[in-house]
Amino acid sequence: MSTDSAKPAAPSPAEPNCSCAAPGALPDWVPVGSERDPKFACRVMSGVAPDAAQTQLKQPAKRRKLSLDDYTRGVLAADVGILSRAITLVESNHPAHQALAQQLLTRVLPHSGHSIRVGITGVPGAGKSTLIEALGCSLCDQGHRLAVLAVDPSSSVTGGSILGDKTRMENLVRHPLAYIRPSPSGGSLGGVARKSRETMLLCEAAGFDVILVETVGVGQNEVTVRSMVDFFLLLMLAGAGDELQGMKKGVVEIADLLAVNKADGDNIHRANLAAAESNRVLSFLQPATPGWKTRCTTCSAHLPATLTELWRAIEQFVLATRESGAFAARRERQAVEWMHAMIGEELHNRFFRNPRVQQLLPGLEQQVASNQMPAATAAQQLLLCSRTL
Ligand SMILES: Nc1nc2c(ncn2[C@@H]2O[C@H](COP(=O)(O)OP(=O)(O)OP(=O)(O)O)[C@@H](O)[C@H]2O)c(=O)[nH]1
Ligand SMILES: [Mg+2]
Questions:
Q1: Atom 32 in ligand 1: which residue has the minimum CA distance?
Q2: For residues 80 and 77, what is the distance between their CA atoms, to the nearest angstrom?
Q3: Last residue of a domain, one of 271, 298, 324
Q4: Can you name the residues that pair with 121 across neighbouring β-strands?
Q5: What CATH number corresponds to the domain at position 98?
Q6: pLDDT for 67-94, tens place per residue?
Q7: What's the 289 CA to ligand 2 centre distance in angstroms?
Q8: Co-location of 82 and 68 in the same domain
Q9: Using a 6 Å CB cutoff, which residues line ligand 1?
Q10: Domains in the chain: how many in total?
Q11: 193 shares its domain with 221
Q12: Pocket probe mutation, ligand 1, options 130, 214, 303, 310, max atoms within 8 Å of Cβ
C-alpha cells in the first residue's frame, strides 16, 4: 500500500480545510434548538480576501527625507522627532549621511554648549540608572530639560544593557522634559565616543540644559566619558571592595565627586564608614579639576534629600569652575583633544585599509615575531609603503 494514499487529500484553495459554518449561519457553539433565541444575534461572516490595495495600506508610510534646513530648523525648535532623526544621522556610518551630519553640526554648533554635562560611572549594579531616574525626574520637575545618554562600546555585541536601562528609567522615559538615548552601536570605542559627543551637541542645540552620560559595560570608557563631560561622578558600593577597585583603575583620580550609593536602610552606617575611608584616601590624591576639592559623600535613589545634596554639589562645582576659568579651559581642551583623537583614528583606519599594508603585514608580523626583523624596521617599512609618512 502506498503511504501517499493514506494521506488526506490536500484542501483546494477555494475550500478551506476546516469545519467552519457557511457564511450567514450561526456559529457552531450555539446550542442545538437555540437557533431562534434572540441572544444569539451573531452570524458567521464570510472572510475577505486581502486585495493588493489593502496590502499596500498596511505598509508603514515611508518617512519624508529631510533636508539640511529641515534638520537644522527641527533641532533648534526642539522637535524631538527630528532630533532623534538627526542623532540617527550622526550615528550612521554611511559616507553621505556623515557628510550631511557634519554640515548639520557646523550649523548647530553656535547654539550648543549651554548645558551642564555630567558623567556617571560605577561598577555594574552600582545603581547608576536608578540614580539617573530619580535625580532626572526631580530635575525635570524643577523645569530642567534633561538628556540622558549612555556610552557602551560593548552594546553592539550584548544589546542587553540598553534594554535594562530603558526599563529602569520608566518614569523618566515618560517625562515630557526628558530625552533618553541608548548607546550608539559604533563598533570601536572611538566610534561610540564620536557619536555620543555629536549627540550631546545636538541635544544642547535642542535646548537640553542638563546632559547625564552613563558609562555602561566595562573597559576603558570611564576615561572616554571623562573627556566629554564637565563633571564626573563615581558611584561606589559600601563593603563591596569597590572603593579599592576604583582606586586601582585610577577612576578615583578622574572623578570630581565620589558617592557611596544605596545609603539607605541597614546600609547607612556602612556607607558612612566607607565614605569616611574614601575621604581619608582622597586627601592624599591630586584633585581631577584644579581648584576643586574632590570629596566622598553618600546617597540613595530612595532618599530625595541626598539627591538634592548631590545636585547642589554639582551646581557649586559649575559655579566655582566657571569663576576660576577651569570650566571653559576644560571644554576648550576637550574639543582640541577630540580633534586629535579623530585624526589619530582616521589615520589608523586608512593605514590598515591600505591594500599594500594588508599584503605586507602578515609576513612582517611573522618576521618580527621570530626575531628576524626589529619591530621598528617593520613599522617603518609599512608606514613608508602606505605613504602615511
Ligand atoms: N537599596 C537601594 N537599591 C538600589 C539603589 N539604587 C539602585 N538600587 C538597586 O540596585 C540594582 C542595580 O541598579 P541599577 O540602577 O540598574 O545599576 P546600574 O549601575 O545602572 O547597573 P548597570 O547598568 O548594569 O551597570 C537594582 O536592583 C536597583 O533596584 C538605592 O539607592 N538603594
Ligand atoms: Mg545602568
A1: 262
A2: 9
A3: 324
A4: 234
A5: 1.20.5.170
A6: 999 999 999 999 999 999 999 999 888 8
A7: 26
A8: yes
A9: 122, 124-130, 161, 165, 168, 216, 261-262, 264, 300-302
A10: 3
A11: yes
A12: 130
CB pairs under 8 A, 24+ apart, for 310-318? 310/135, 310/233, 310/257, 310/259, 311/135, 311/138, 311/139, 313/257, 314/116, 314/118, 314/231, 314/233, 314/257, 317/230, 317/231, 317/256, 317/257, 317/289, 317/292, 318/116, 318/230, 318/231
Cell of 304: 530625595
Expressed as residue numbers, the domain containing 69 is: 64-110
Residues 263 and 288 in one domain: yes
Question: What's the pLDDT tens digit per position in 16-66?
Answer: 444 445 666 666 666 666 666 666 666 666 666 656 555 555 566 677 899
Mean pLDDT of the 160-171 span: 60
Query: Looking at the domain assignment, is residue 50 inside a domain?
Result: no
Taking the CB of residue 246, how many other CB atoms lie within 10 A of it?
24
Closest CA to 271 of 304, 235, 317, 316: 235
- Which residue CA neighbors atom 1 of ligand 1 most closely? 262
Instruction: Report the distance separating Cα 22 and Cα 43, nearest Å.
Output: 10
| Same structural domain, 91 and 130 | no
DSSP state of 135: H
Interval between CA 162 and ligand 1 midpoint (Å): 14
Structural domain contains residue 163: yes
Q: Which three cell numbers stand for residue 160?
A: 542587553
